[in-house]
Amino acid sequence: MAAPRAFRRLPLLGLPLLGFIAACTAPPPEAYTALGTSRAAESRPAGTDSRGETCISQDGRSVALDLPLAATTEAYCGGWTQPAARIFALRGPVDVATLDRIATGGVWRSWLDQRLICAAPQATRLGDGTPARLLQCTRRQGGWAHVAMVTQGAEGPVLADGIPTAMPVMERVARGMAPGGAVVRSAALELETVRLAARAFGAGDVRDFERAMQLGQEQNLVENYVGAESAYRAALAIQERVLGGNNPDTVGPLMHLALNLSNQQRHREAEALFTRSEALAPQASDPTVPARLAHYRGLHALNQGRYAEAGVLLERAETLYRGFVPASLLRGGTSVDPFGTTAAISPIAQTAIVGLAEARRGRATVLARSGAPAAARALVAEARGLLQRVDYDRAAVGGRSLRTEAAALRAGQDPAGAGDLLTRAAARFGQASPGERAEARTLFLLGQSRAAAGQTVPALDAFRAGAEILRLRRIALESDQVLDYLEALARQAQARPAEAAALAREMFGAAQLAQRGQTQRFLAQAAARLATGGGDARVTAAVRRMQDLDQELRELFAQRDSLGAVGAEALAELDTRIAARQEARAEAESEVAAAAPAYRQLLLSAASAADVAGVLGEKEGLVQILLGPRFGYALALRADGGVLARRVALTEAEATALVGRVRAGIDQGAASFDMAAAQALHVALLAPLAAALEGADRLVVVPDGPLLSIPFGLLLTGPAEPADLRGAPWLIRQFAIVHATSPQALVTIRRGAPTSAAPNPYIGFGDFEPPSAAQLARSFPADRCAEDARLASGLGRLPGTRAEVEAAARFLGTRSTLFGASFTAAALRNADLGSHRVVHLATHALLPGELSCVTEPAIVVSAPRGAADANAALLRASEVLTLRLDADLVILSACNTAGPATGVAGAAGGAGEALSGLARSFFFAGARGLLVTHWPVADQAAAFTVAYMMQRQQIGGDSATALRESQLVLLNEAGVNLPAEFAHPFYWAGFAMIGDGRLAQPVRRVAGGGAAIGG
Question: Which of 879, 887, 796 is nearest to 843 (CA)?
């Protein structure tokens, strides 16, 4: 982290082009519990709760209640770090009138009402006959069942509240029973009903839910929206399992999830979840839900550039939040809750305060972008002041406020002041989450600002400091910010020609720091799969250790932030502990990489130009493309290590339109093909690199965004006539083409074992049985995934794939094939795939760009006989990770694996990005190359392509060249020995090679064939 720390002493110049990202931050977890106490006190056994979970108790903090306090006890059950119950023993009268008065009014009941929705007290008796008043409640935050009780104790009334499963512990403590003693069942029907209902969930469920919500908040604060998405999905799943799918109290994680999808620009997905939230919000237990829904919808509109709509929604949110904020805070004072605290007054008020401040900050962004910078700065100041009054101006929240204010300053033509604020913001993020995405992003914003002001050298200082964080933590930023880094490097190269070669190599590495949301999501899912035991045991243990150390570091940083102005010695001691944990974390990641070298394919890892050049052939060139909203860059690399970088005028939106035109002539079965669009893509992306690619006969392409959805072989290097497709100058005539998921992935594959050591030549699977309509309906609920069910139901049987697989098997002299109902995920896992050099899967693929309820790419197989739903018919990418392959080639044919750019959020290249994730899974599992189809190729053309490739490799041809030759045969023989329509790219261009592409080992044919494994 040395570079970022040193950077903060640089001159304060420049101003960023700030893109607003934020979700309303929630109070810390302790603010949602009764007192926010810690577990530092000595603990004692407290027996078990009604689910048999072990509980402990400890003394709690002294508070002011309705009568003098004799003792406070907190009970912790099932490993939950928050109290499952709190019991207050008071001194005073214990008559029935006193119990009724405390249960219906007063300080304690007022405090309950801030956090819970409670029914009227019910008169009952405990198991030993002691009178009691029972309140059955629901927590406003989360909607969990809760219970409160007033009964008689040794010195006076005893007040208790907690989750229902903690009732036995409450009774023991209230009546002074021994921890191991049995609690006599309460005679009251009400208590028995509570206990019976309580068995549906326990402390562990609430613990897991709150932990997931906390992780979501932490990930959101450091702007890891993919991580936040995963956490909120987990929280939602827990709630839906316990409370039911349409319970109004599931709206909390649902809204958080929606906003984090919106922050990833997955707007259509987010809109669907917001629509569900609107139906649930009116009945939610948390009264601030309508305010938060307006707030988050406002941010959603802001993410889409709909400023007028965003302003209206955020103003409505402010009005609604204001109704829950104590009047003293709005007047500039402070507020004290019944328990004497100011920071955590009550969960509802705390949520409203933070929400009001963040809604104001969001509206400030609207004003800054709408030409009212002075008003924007005033709103930011109001928001910051409000947070400071409740002691909640956390480092990360403060950093966001400073960035918003910097945007206002830039709009007001004050770049120097904006630069100062951005540097302060980077320091704030460095305190809250050092070395994370939020700090890096702020440094890049500062770099953008300085570059815009013409300060190239200071801009590069900022960019490089942020890039160092990204490389160390293997995280990524949006393409537009990285493109400004490339632009600054190009400007510096023009100013200093002697440094141009080195700067071009730096550009090559920098371009890899951009990563799109779907790729980030897949990588997070893959890492989570490894961490939960999906892969090699050594990898699993190392990943878990790495994640544990990440959590320890977060806690240590939080401790450091809370120390404030303490002595230098205490800070030094804590910094020493942090440094030790950081070193241990780095060692853990090295253990993962050592146990599974392919692990780095699952991470953002920028390979140097020298590393990539070292794995390129003499006549091989690599082209890396990065597209953004304003411009792009294309970079070419050859084996000598030289890099040629060219600015591309083509924007992501323009590329999306061109790719759409190219695909339209294929996806819609059009007789014509858009030659102009195919040529325009070549002119924009590859023609500027012609000098660097001269003499090459093989091209490795690392595409971006919408470009992931087309095979580059169908680009046109010059003008052509639609009537003469056969004679057109297709790019495939110039190069054998390989597509790579990233430069680092290419390096990892080619530095691994050069060829397969598997003894068997081939195994093939095809002609799956689609799930039934009933199975699809259960996997894709109509209220959330009706469109997905409709699309999935269209994935019909592919009988032609049986002939394709059988032809390949016959050619290679084997009968290792499996079809129909036998083609299941379990069969794949049990088929000893690692003993085959070629693995052929002829089936559909489902991609997140096509189905919004499929959160990771998957291939479709047959569901087991009698399966309740269609879940087992999807072999997800994270499950592919666990396969054990030693394959020179995996063939995924007839699967439309890189379909049109119809991402769930309308984002370009959504399906293509998912293809990248699917490919990474197969590479991790042990494949060296992956042959995919970009659309369902005609049966005859598909069978010929696969068989011809096998034949060419049989005589020593490499895989990329073999694919090129098979495609040229189809193209050149069209109208001669094949139907004339075969000259259309639909027939010959659908297959694409991903991965190595150089494998030239002959496929060893097995004499006499092999044993059949299916039928």
Answer: 796
Name the architecture of domain 609-739. Answer: 2-Layer Sandwich (3.30)
675 φ/ψ angles, rounded to the nearest 5 degrees: -65, -35
Angle at which helix 456-473 crosses helix 479-495, to 10 degrees, equals: 130
Name the pairing type of β-strands 929-933 and 889-893: parallel
869-906 pLDDT, tens digit per residue, is 888 888 888 788 778 888 889 998 866 644 443 333 33
988 exposure class (CB count in 10 Å sphere: 0-12, 13-18, 19+): buried
- CA 674 to CA 765: how far, in whole Å? 35
**In sequence order, which residues have a C-beta less than 8 Å from that of residue 952 and are 6 or more positions away?**
961, 962, 965, 966
Q: Give the span between the Cα atoms of 1005 and 200, in whole angstroms.
A: 59
What are the tokens at 94?
């214990």
| Separation between Cα atoms, residue 307 and residue 298, nearest integer Å | 9
Cα–Cα distances (Å) from 174 to 44, 102, 107, 152, 197, in that order, read 15, 16, 19, 8, 22
**Contact present, 958 and 950 (Cβ < 8 Å):** no
Residue 990's SS3 state is coil
What are the distances in angstroms from CA 449 to CA 298, 768, 1004? Answer: 26, 55, 59
Q: DSSP labels for 825-840?
A: HHHHHTS-GGGEEEEE
Rounded to an integer, what distance in angstroms lies between the CA atom of residue 953 and that of residue 931? 14
Q: Where are the beta strands (DSSP E) in 703-854?
A: 736-739, 760-768, 817-820, 836-842, 845-846
Q: Are strands 736-739 and 698-702 parallel, antiparallel or unpaired?
A: parallel
* CA-wise closest residue to 824 among 612, 1005, 1014, 626: 1014
Q: How far is CA 244 from CA 247, 292, 972, in A?
A: 5, 22, 60
Strands in 929-933's sheet, in edge-to-edge order, are 643-648, 632-638, 620-627, 698-702, 736-739, 991-995, 929-933, 889-893, 836-842, 760-768, 817-820
Helix (H) or strand (E) holding 698: strand 698-702
pLDDT, tens digit, 9 for 90 and up, residues 477-497:
888 889 999 999 999 999 999
609, 611, 616, 621: CA torsion to nearest 10: -10
What value does the CA radius of gyration of the chain take, rounded to a whole number of Å?
31
Q: How many residues does the chain have?
A: 1015
Sheet containing 845-846, strands listed edge to edge, beginning at the edge strand earlier in sequence: 845-846, 858-860, 874-876
Q: Say how far apart CA 829 and CA 867 lie, in whole Å.
A: 18
Sign of CA dihedral 118, 119, 122, 126: negative
Q: What is the DSSP string of 705-725?
A: GGGGGS-GGG-BSS---TT-S
pLDDT band, residue 638 (cuts 50/70/90):
very high
Torsions phi, psi of 116, nearest 5?
-130, 160
Give how far the C-alpha of residue 879 lies from the chain's centroid of Cα atoms, to the nearest Å.
17
Judged against a pLDDT cut of 60, whether residue 825 lies above it is answered with yes
H or E segment and range at residue 700? strand 698-702
Once rounded to an integer, what is the mean pLDDT over residues 650-673? 85
Phi, psi (degrees; rounded to nearest 5) at 635: -130, 130
Residue 887 bridge partners (DSSP): 927
Phi, psi dihedrals of residue 934, rounded to the nearest 5°: -85, -10
Sign of CA dihedral 465, 469, 474, 477: negative
Helix, strand or coil, per DSSP, at residue 474? coil
Name the token pair of 683: 């002119």
Give me the residue spans of the domains in the chain.
537-595, 609-739, 755-938
| Phi–psi pair at 730, nearest 5 degrees | -65, 150
By the 8 A CB rule, do 636 and 692 touch? yes
Q: Tell me: the pLDDT tens digits for 300-326? A: 999 999 999 999 999 999 999 999 888
